[in-house]
Amino acid sequence: MIDIPLVDLRAQHEQVADEVADGWAEVLKNTSFVGGRQVGEFEAEFAAYQEVPHCVAVGNGTDAIELALRALDVGPGDECVLPANTFIATAGAVARTGATPVLVDCVAETGLIDVSLVAEAVTPRTKALLPVHLYGQAAPVEELRSFGVPIVEDAAQAQGARRHGVAVGGLGDIAATSFYPGKNLGAYGDGGAVLTTSAELASAVRLLREHGSPRKYEHSVVGFNSRLDTLQAVVLSAKLRRLEGWNELRRAAADRYSALLADVPGVALPVVLEGNVPVWHLYVVRVPSRDRVLASLHEAGIGAGIHYPTPVHLTGAYVHLGHAPGDFPVSEAVAGEIVSLPLFPEITVAQQERVVAALAEAVR
């Protein structure tokens, strides 16, 4: 039985339960289930938190990436460069526009996109670059500027993270994030948002999320139905007021893990890229014989996980890209060694000590 979960959503809910109940009662009373006042209020609050002028709330994180790409006119015949080491949604959003995902390898120490390989992937058909802010730290977006291609940040795991003092969401041209329940800022269901400094791009996303409709029963473009529910906006606003404190607790927990694991042989610790202030969505280590170690942790009641076990090019969905095992050796090696340890703001010292003891025993 798992008694130290990977993520403890129950503990987080207890902190906001009363505020959420009051907010939901107001929504239920007014029956403003779609497009209620609270959605606009959350968009303004989240934009201010991420230090960008525009936030457009949408149905989920995958939609957020797709709509950001479509706002840049990405479509059939275009190419978008992204890391092979990412959740499948990054590639999926590109494919849904009709464009082709073009993969590059990652850096072993951080798991982030290897910028040195991007030049080989960029062609005249490249319409966007999609760096992924993995595990809670930002990719080196500034190093991608020289290509002169629009940059779409996949910021689903990095709400509140910074790079060289700039909050994610404002590093590229446009950014997408997810409010899936397990995220640092999670809803009670699906949700997502697009962030940008461009009023033009924000307007394009707003149009696309509402059936291409600037006003009721007018449809100037082919659009989608991807809106954040009012009930979820209430949850997100309540959690957003606590997010900075929760992220600080995550940093403290990550520092504690690093100290406790410093002398454990066989465990490679995560590396923070210079200039980054991460928010530690995940604390990911690398170990030999990963599957055996993971099974041992589960037997000890430790809810460890893998993010992610299969690089994009080795999934059945993307065999048509024509890649084979060995094409992205770092991503493949990382995928076979990574373990995500339990990490959430409320994790206790005793819980972390138990996780470390179990991990040390499993590796030994």
UniProtKB/TrEMBL annotation:
<dbReference type="InterPro" id="IPR015421">
    <property type="entry name" value="PyrdxlP-dep_Trfase_major"/>
</dbReference>
<comment type="similarity">
    <text>Belongs to the DegT/DnrJ/EryC1 family.</text>
</comment>
<feature type="modified residue" description="N6-(pyridoxal phosphate)lysine">
    <location>
        <position position="183"/>
    </location>
</feature>
<dbReference type="GO" id="GO:0008483">
    <property type="term" value="F:transaminase activity"/>
</dbReference>
<dbReference type="InterPro" id="IPR015424">
    <property type="entry name" value="PyrdxlP-dep_Trfase"/>
</dbReference>
<protein>
    <submittedName>
        <fullName>dTDP-4-amino-4,6-dideoxygalactose transaminase</fullName>
    </submittedName>
</protein>
<dbReference type="GO" id="GO:0000271">
    <property type="term" value="P:polysaccharide biosynthetic process"/>
</dbReference>
<feature type="active site" description="Proton acceptor">
    <location>
        <position position="183"/>
    </location>
</feature>
<dbReference type="InterPro" id="IPR015422">
    <property type="entry name" value="PyrdxlP-dep_Trfase_small"/>
</dbReference>
<keyword id="KW-0663">Pyridoxal phosphate</keyword>
<dbReference type="Pfam" id="PF01041">
    <property type="entry name" value="DegT_DnrJ_EryC1"/>
</dbReference>
<dbReference type="GO" id="GO:0030170">
    <property type="term" value="F:pyridoxal phosphate binding"/>
</dbReference>
<dbReference type="InterPro" id="IPR000653">
    <property type="entry name" value="DegT/StrS_aminotransferase"/>
</dbReference>
